[in-house]
Design brief:
The protein has one domain. The longest helix is centred in the middle third of the chain and has 28 residues, at 36-63. 77% of the residues lie in helices and 0% in strands. Helix 1 (3-23) packs parallel to helix 4 (89-98). With 131 residues, it is an all-alpha fold.
Length: 131
């Protein structure tokens, strides 16, 4: 697989996920954009956006260490694993924002943050071993 195709797919998925995350939030029926609930949801969205941007940036940085234009299956599927978890961000973000007192929603939210970072560490080790 050509490296540029993986990078394009990764960029596209991150763009869609970042967009879907904000589209999941609804304007309150009373129109009050400064209510505590709306401000909390905005804070959760900003946190999610920054996390996604950081993951994208780190993934891009790790990919720069691949000197060849060809990507092997292990790197391809490791990247896909990270993208799979990234695609869960809109769901876990909205679940956490709408159910702030739910332990399950909070665990899903935190897990969605942690798993990509752990996966990035493993991914970078895979790439570094191939250098």
């Amino acid at each position: 697989m050509n490296k540029s195709r993986i990078e394009a797919l990764t960029d596209g998925i991150f763009a869609v996920v970042m967009t879907l995350t904000v589209l999941e939030f609804k304007v309150p029926e009373d129109g009050n954009l400064f209510s505590p609930n709306v401000l909390l949801m905005l804070l959760i969205y900003i946190t999610t956006f920054v996390a996604l941007a950081s993951i994208w940036n780190s993934l891009h940085h790790v990919m720069t260490f691949i000197k060849s234009n060809k990507i092997d299956e292990l790197i391809l599927w490791s990247n896909h694993w990270i993208l799979l978890i990234v695609c869960l961000f809109p769901f876990s973000t909205v679940a956490h924002a709408e159910h702030t007192n739910s332990l399950t929603a909070s665990l899903a939210y935190v897990s969605t943050y942690l798993i990509p970072w752990i996966s990035l560490i493993v991914f970078s080790q895979i790439i570094y071993r191939k250098l």
